[in-house]
Amino acid sequence: MLKQxxxxxxIREFVRREGxxxxxxxxxxxxxxxxxxxxxxxxxxxxxxxxxNAIATIVVRVGDIKIKLRGSSCTETAVAIVxxxxxxxx
Length: 90
Known about the structure:
alpha+beta, 2 domains, two-stranded antiparallel sheet, about 15% strand
């Protein structure tokens, strides 16, 4: 799903280029949206321009818990943490 959004393409064009079935892609999008938040509140702590070669940092706060993520895959990890915290399994 993230790859489709990042591509800037509509779903039909994206699935055609990727060789996917439109119905399968839409089914997965619906399933993932059921368990994933669409929008999350975001606080931008530092609006300064990023330095070249800077390591990305995301901070997830839940109550008094603060999780700091660094690196190229921190976005996916942050989403996984939020989804897990919002699920009924926790």
